[in-house]
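Q: Here's a chain of 115 amino acids. Please give me its 3D structure as tokens.
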Amino acid sequence: MVFGSQVPTVGVDDLTSGDFLLDVREDEEWQAGHAEGALHIPMSAFVERYGELTEAAPQDGKVNVICRSGGRSAQVAMYLGQQGIEAFNVAGGMEAWAASGRPVVDDKGQPGTVV
């Protein structure tokens, strides 16, 4: 999917360890490997679990949304923007995250993989 300029994006290299990260991949993907410290709310359950995001997200900060390659996260970032939340799609998703050498951990905190 192409979202063009409708969805603000951020590159993996522009993120710092203090930035808020929302992972919208499904449970199996998350369990195999994710960014440590990210909040996990699968896109398939996002609407019913939206309150978890509003409780965890920084009140005056931005939400960086990530998936495997950037398609699902772009959709969620667009939705969040419509809700008045400053949201950015992480370009390239977890594939770009791992390719840049950033750590990926599994659900047990051990080295993980992006699936």
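Q: Can you summarize the key feature?
A: The two ends are 19 Å apart (CA to CA).
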